[in-house]
Amino acid sequence: MHHHPVRSRDRRGSVLLAAGIAAVAAIAAGISAAVPASAAAEYTTNATIDGLRFTSQTVTSGSAAELSGTWSLPDSPTTPAGFVVDLPPELQGRSDAFPLLAPDGSAMGRCTVSSTQLDCAVDSAYVAAHPNDLHGSFSFWVTVETTTESATPTTYQVGGTAVTTTVEPAQPGTGPGTCTVDCTFTGRTNGKWGSYDAAAGVVEWTVAIGSGAGGMRDGQRITVTDTPGPDQELLTSFRGYPFATLWQTNRTTTWDDGREGLTGWAPAPREDYASTAGSVTFTARQGYFYDVHFATRVTDGGLAGTYTNTATIGIDGDDDSSVSGTVVHQGGGASGSGTAPTSTPTPTAPATVEPTPTPTPTAPATVEPAPTAEPTVRPTVTPGASTADEETESPVPTAMGAAVDTGGTTSESTAPWWSVALLGSGGLTLLLVLGVWAARTRARTRARTRP
Question: Where do the structural domains in the chain lie, given as residue ranges?
Fold first, then answer.
């Protein structure tokens, strides 16, 4: 078998091709690195972000903090249009979703907060109707993950902008519910509270059923009924759980700060209770503690900001008691506006006036001139002018009225009037010439015959 060596020209071509591919790849990589992935993937036109800042001069480590800023788009932006604000790892976005509101309260877009960014999309239809001076403001919440031992000014890179606030250390053992005196668990009272999932637009309500330190007595019949406040509707399921749901535990524990409390909460077996979206009925077991969970969907998109809920607890058919809870939408908001294009009136074309047609002149009728009557010429006969010789010669017609030299005798020879009419002016001239010629011929003939 013969192996044909690769010709040098082929090798050079292969090297050049490989170099070209590498160069294109390098250029593509450079372009990709120059354009932020989040912005390039989302919008054709990205808004400019200005005035980004913390709304509070100090924040506590591990707590929530609010960021705010303004946005603007160039006139007549290509859609889709919007903006993305990326967060550093030290600031975790609090999941949320809210409308971007126009001046009349309608939605001109929507914003979503994830753990890593704020993403706001401006509705393409709104941009088409209001393409000029598009701008607005926004705010959203993050959790500060930075830990410090003392109040420390800290700068974060948020969406490419440096924002600074003072982070204070968390104070252990000072939060609400922390036991500072007599930390022994003595039981619980009826209560209600809620947790707002802003991204889902759902509030999960918890109703605590009060009991002593030893829990409920065996066989107690308990019914809990929920009444949602304005701008809410009850749900039958959320996060894969049916609602309403009964939770239970019979365990207590003591934490490091000396506080004693309940732990080990878990859903009760489904066969242990009856439920609808707004009620739960069950029979208690000895030494157990119970919570009932309801879920309501917020129907106004978070605009109210504060939502309330009331529940009624009945034990063994009496001693009904009512508890209420309130949640605050600790979420973001955004607004914006734009102006419609200035319309230029379309000029109205002047009415076309058709020119008045000029009448075509009528040619006058041709009037044939009346024929002029030919004058009647009467022949003149001179007495004694005829001779014997003349009588024997054949007469030659001469022009009418022409004098013919006859050697001393003058006579007029005339053609019939109708010959003149037939021959016209041309024929008349011919006759005149012939007449002159004939007269001269007779005169010469007589001259030769005279003695």
Answer: 23-170, 187-329, 388-449
